[in-house]
Specification:
This protein has 351 residues and is α+β, with helices and mostly antiparallel strands. It has 11 helices and 12 strands. Strands 4-3-2-6-5-1-11-12 form an 8-stranded mixed beta sheet. Strands 7-8-9-10 form a 4-stranded antiparallel beta sheet. Helix 4 links the parallel strand 3 and strand 4. It is globular.
């Protein structure tokens, strides 16, 4: 091989080596650049009940109070999700804030039964494996959503009720309170108003707005975490003046609560009997899975058409596996809030 041929071989080998090193560098750096540009999607939505909620009937101070609790609750859950926490944890802790407020019909603010007691219901569901837990008719559990989660994680069952649920709560070291904890003057006045209207058989009074909406006030939360897992939870005190240990949709999986990573997570609020009959939360998921509808399309179909056709009213909050949120209701208002992965906060009360 002469001198010039040797020079050509060296240049070719050197060029190939540089090109290979450049290719390796690109291959190593490309994923890093992509990870910087593509942040994990997560999001959260909450509700505090739907009904005849009109601005003309709301004082400035009371509206500010509602907005403050809604913001505190959703920021609590959003912080958990942002730091990499699970959707289940975010749902539980967010609902705890709402349960601890006397403004909402759940936990501390639970309405009274016909007997002047408080009977609380709650449910929670994990969209990653369809595991679920629920409790109904409990009277001494400070935060029923916590007990529902324990039923899901530490029992072979889905729903426990009444005294049996409270025995289980003691075994799981769930915080319990004297039933007097749930007493609030506003809720007692609502019960008295309903009872007086019944005694007088005064139809005009009985169908007064505040009474017609005694069935509303449930709280709920849905969330999508950074791992792509969905969760939903719902908690309520039920319906004012309810009798015979009545149970609504809140603790019923598929009616008041549903979560499935394939589709969405849903929490309902409204006239429970109709949400049970319509299997509302699951119906939204099923329409997405089997009819390929978007979350918003499915929510609109169920809440604006199917539920009213049955004679019911209320609303839902939902989030799908891509982070899209739907907050659909057929009443005059629904306490609600959302926060996305960018931290954008939206709070609503009226239509």
């Amino acid at each position: 091989m002469n001198y010039f041929s040797w020079i050509i071989v060296v240049l070719v080998i050197t060029g190939c080596a540089e090109q290979k090193q450049s290719t390796i560098a690109i291959e190593k750096n490309t994923p890093v650049l992509e990870q910087k540009d593509e942040l994990p999607t997560f999001g959260i939505a909450i509700h505090g009940g739907a009904g005849t909620i009109l601005k003309k009937n709301m004082s400035v101070e009371k509206e500010q109070a509602y907005r403050a609790v809604l913001e505190n609750a959703i920021r609590t859950g959003h912080k958990i999700l942002k730091s990499g926490g699970t959707s289940l944890e975010a749902v539980e802790k967010t609902i705890n804030i709402l349960e601890d407020s006397p403004l909402f019909n759940a936990g501390k603010g639970a309405v009274f039964t016909n007997n002047g007691t408080n009977e609380l219901d709650a449910s929670i569901m994990d969209g990653s494996n369809l595991n679920a837990g629920a409790v109904s008719g409990v009277t001494t559990i400070k935060n029923p959503i916590n007990l529902a989660k324990e039923v899901m994680l530490n029992s072979p069952h889905v729903m426990l009720s009444g005294t049996g649920a409270e025995v289980f709560a003691k075994q799981q070291n769930i915080e319990m309170v004297d039933p007097a904890y749930f007493y609030t003057e506003d809720r007692m006045k609502s019960l008295e108003k309903v009872k007086n209207a019944e005694l007088k058989k005064d139809k005009m009074a009985f169908y007064d707005e505040s009474i017609r909406n005694s069935k509303f006030g449930t709280v709920g939360c849905v969330a999508l975490d950074k791992n792509g897992n969905l969760a939903a939870g719902t908690s309520t005190g039920g319906m004012t003046n309810k009798k015979w240990n009545r149970i609504g949709d809140a603790p019923i999986i598929g009616a008041g609560t549903y979560a499935n990573n394939k589709t969405c997570a849903v929490s309902s609020t409204g006239w429970g009997e109709f949400f049970i009959r319509g299997v509302v939360a699951y119906d939204i998921s099923a329409m997405m899975e089997y009819k390929n509808l978007s979350l918003q399309e499915a929510a609109t179909e169920v809440i604006q058409k199917k539920v009213p056709q049955l004679g019911g009213s209320g609303g839902i909050i939902a989030i799908d596996h891509q982070g899209n949120v739907a907050m659909e209701f057929n009443t005059a208002g629904m306490y609600r809030a959302t926060m996305d992965s960018k931290g954008e906060l939206n709070i609503g009360i009226y239509k």
